[in-house]
Write a structure and sequence with these properties.
With about 325 residues, the protein is mainly beta. The chain is about 5% helix and about 50% strand. The protein has one helix and 17 strands. The chain has a 14-stranded antiparallel barrel. A two-stranded antiparallel ribbon has the order 8-9. This is Type IX secretion system membrane protein PorP/SprF. Pfam families: PorP_SprF. Keywords: Signal. InterPro entries: PorP/SprF_Bacteroidetes.
């Protein structure tokens, strides 16, 4: 097991030591309830088959504002003594005339660390492809005779990979992952039209570090604080600070604060760049033992605050239990 752990850590350190790109990827506020969106090693955490769907309308009222959504499915393979977790994701992102459609598969090797099977160390990898598209018909022309603008939709497929480590107990978790590993080796000018190349939106390599815990406050009340650090080594380091209350094992109520911090010295950043980002409020409700419904509202607190109406996000989660399903050891993360 020590050899596997050392190998996993070496791959992670090698990946994060590579030169990063300068764009921040869109992030769901409700990643807290579906860690697969930020770490492939999370695949199979709930052990039973779990389906999650999510939709986000960012910066409501802002022209061409991003609309993002996706669906994921993950679980463990029964023949592996729950040591193998598998996951699949489909994600889409639309920003004005540009689109991105991604398909990913994830594999997690889940190492038991005690005889009671309450602690596991998970090593995960993921691979997939992203289709980047630009629609020339959605652009507003200054010159209708401009031959450099595509007349229709142009698309290209780009491969991708990700890697992560995830450790959990019944009341604590910690993880680290590198997403969009291949983005360093693909050209930003992905589209060619009549001899012209176009640089467009793209996902870029990011390091994610997450940790959180559960603390009982009473018979029917528990507190779950957590933190996420997102780093691309070029733009501002993003930090999410979250706190949730679980009431009666039925209702999650919480808030999140996202800001930039100066963890690394980056000489390329503007000195007057605002570090403020957003504050979120979230509600997650278990309509049944297996069906979860969630909503998040993000209030932008930077200079864009007066130009849009915040961001809305809704999610659905459904657990498909196996024959051995039990609620004696609930999955809080």
């Amino acid at each position: 097991m020590q050899k596997v752990l050392r190998a996993g850590i070496m791959v992670l350190l090698l990946a994060i030591s590579m030169k990063g790109a300068a764009q921040q990827n869109i992030q769901f506020s409700q990643y807290i309830f579906n860690g697969l969106s930020v770490n492939p090693a999370y695949a199979g955490y709930k052990e039973d088959l779990y389906v999650n769907a999510i939709y986000r309308h960012q910066w409501a009222g802002f022209p061409g504002a991003p609309r993002t959504g996706g669906i994921s499915l993950d679980g463990v393979t029964p023949a592996s003594d729950k040591k193998v977790g598998l996951g699949m994701q489909m994600l889409f992102d639309k920003s004005g005339p540009q689109d991105a459609l991604s398909l990913y598969g994830s594999y997690s090797y889940r190492i038991p660390l005690d005889d009671e099977d309450t602690r596991r160390l998970c090593l995960g990898i993921g691979a997939g492809v992203t289709q980047y598209s630009i629609d020339g018909t959605a652009l507003q022309y200054i010159d209708n005779e401009d031959a450099a603008i595509p007349l229709g939709k142009k698309s290209v497929w780009v491969p991708d990979a990700r890697f992560g480590i995830y450790y959990y107990t019944p009341r604590f978790y910690a993880g680290a992952s590198v997403m969009d590993l291949f983005s360093l080796y693909t050209d930003a000018s992905r589209y060619n039209w009549k001899g012209n190349n176009y640089s467009t939106i793209r996902k870029t390599q990011h390091l994610y570090i997450t940790t959180g815990a559960m603390f009982p406050l009473g018979e029917n009340l528990q507190l779950k604080p957590s933190i996420l650090i997102k780093e691309d080594f070029k733009g501002p380091t993003n930090v999410d600070i979250n706190a949730f209350l679980l009431i009666g094992e039925k209702l999650w109520v919480g808030a999140s604060y996202r800001t930039g911090v100066g963890i690394w010295r980056k000489t390329n950043l503007q000195k007057d760049l605002s570090e403020l980002d957003a504050a979120s409020v979230m509600v997650e409700f278990y309509a049944t033992e297996k069906l979860r419904i969630g909503y998040a509202y993000d209030l932008t607190i930077n200079k864009m605050a007066g130009y849009q109406g915040g961001s809305h996000e809704i999610s659905l989660g459904f657990l498909i239990p196996s024959k051995n399903y039990t609620v004696k050891n609930p999955r809080y993360f």
